[in-house]
Specification:
Hypothetical protein af1432, single chain, two-stranded antiparallel sheet
Length: about 300
C-alpha cells in the first residue's frame, strides 16, 4: 500500500500497522504509487488557493514566512535561508518603487514574495524556489559582488559571469541556469538609447519566450515575477506617472500571449500549478487592460 505525505506531496510505501499510519486512514492508501499521486493531485486541485496578501509584509516577515512554508513542503531550510541571506546582502541599498507619499520598500521583498508565491502555487522544485530568490542578483548586483570580494572584472558582462560561477558553486548548475535565463541580457546604456520603444519591447518579449520555453521552473518563476511587477502596476497610476506606467503595462501585456501559448503547448504536469498559472495570467491581463484603457486622470 502507498500513501502520500501531505506536508510535501511525497509518495511512500506504507509500512505502518493497520490503522496507525500518521499520513491518513486506510481509504487514503492505494495499491500503487501512481494511484496515490493521482488522488493527491485531485485533492490539491480542489483546495482553495491561499490568497493572503504578501505586499503588506516586511522583509523580515517575508523571510520567516518563506522559511516556514519551504520547510512544510520538505525543502532544505538551511539552503533556502542561505540563498535569502545572499540575495538580501546583494540587494542591500536597492529599493522598490513607491508612490511619493509612501516609503520605498527594500528590493529584497520582491524575490522573497516571488518564492513564497511559487510555494503557494504548488511549486515544490528546490531549484525553482532558489532560482526565484536569486533571480535578480546577476542583473542588478554583479559588479557590486565583484567589488565586495575584490574581484577584478573587464566589463559588466564579465562581472555577471563571475557571480554566476559563485551561484553554480553554491547552489548547482540548475539554479545557475535558471538565474541566467531570468536575467535580461546585458545591454550598455548607449545600446539602450539607440533602440526605439518597439525594439526594446520586442527584445524583452523574445527573451521571455525563449527563456520559458520547455522549462516549467522558469515558466513559473517568470510568471511569479510578472505577477509581482505587472499586477501591481495599477498602484502606480497616480498623477505624474501615468505615461511611464502605461509604457510598462504595454511591455508586460505583450508577454501574456507568450505565456498562454506556452501553457497550452507544454502544459504543467501539476493541476494545482496549472490552475494557479491560468488564474495569474487572467489577473495580470485584466489589470494591464484597465491601465491601458484608462483615460488621463481616471482613477482605476
Amino acid at each position: 500500500m502507498f500513501h502520500i505525505n501531505p506536508a510535501n506531496g511525497a509518495v511512500g510505501r506504507c509500512r505502518a500497522e493497520k490503522g496507525k499510519c500518521p499520513y491518513g486512514p486506510i481509504d487514503e492508501h492505494f495499491e500503487s504509487a501512481a494511484a496515490a499521486r493521482m488522488n493527491y493531485e485531485k485533492k490539491m486541485s480542489e483546495k482553495p488557493l491561499d490568497r493572503s496578501t504578501l505586499k503588506s509584509l516586511t522583509s523580515d516577515e517575508l523571510r520567516k514566512v518563506l522559511l516556514k512554508e519551504a520547510l512544510e513542503i520538505g525543502l532544505d531550510g538551511e539552503l533556502v535561508a542561505k540563498a535569502a541571506n545572499f540575495a538580501k546582502e546583494l540587494h542591500r541599498g536597492q529599493f522598490r518603487s513607491a508612490a511619493p507619499w509612501e516609503e520605498k520598500p527594500p528590493y529584497i521583498t520582491h524575490p522573497l514574495r516571488n518564492a513564497i508565491r511559487l510555494i503557494r502555487w504548488g511549486v515544490t522544485s528546490p531549484e525553482g524556489i532558489l532560482g526565484a530568490i536569486l533571480h535578480d542578483v546577476v542583473e542588478d548586483s554583479s559588479e557590486k559582488y565583484c567589488d565586495q570580494h575584490g574581484i577584478k572584472y573587464r566589463d559588466p558582462e564579465h562581472a555577471r559571469n563571475v557571480l554566476l560561477v559563485r551561484i553554480r558553486k553554491d547552489y548547482g548548475d540548475r539554479v545557475a541556469h535558471i538565474v541566467h535565463k531570468l536575467s535580461n541580457p546585458y545591454q550598455s546604456s548607449d545600446e539602450r538609447r539607440a533602440m526605439t520603444d518597439e525594439e526594446k519591447n520586442s527584445t524583452y518579449v523574445n527573451h521571455v519566450a525563449e527563456s520559458i520555453k520547455d522549462d516549467h521552473d522558469i515558466f513559473m518563476d517568470k510568471l511569479s515575477d510578472l505577477h509581482d511587477n505587472a499586477a501591481s502596476l495599477i498602484h502606480s497610476m497616480y498623477p505624474g506617472r501615468e505615461k511611464q506606467t502605461r509604457k510598462q503595462a504595454l511591455k508586460y501585456s505583450l508577454t501574456m500571449p507568450v505565456f498562454r501559448e506556452e501553457l497550452a503547448r507544454n502544459p504543467l504536469r501539476s493541476p494545482v500549478q496549472r490552475r494557479a498559472a491560468f488564474e495569474s495570467i487572467v489577473l495580470i491581463e485584466d489589470r494591464l487592460r484597465s491601465i491601458l484603457a484608462a483615460e488621463p486622470g481616471e482613477k482605476i
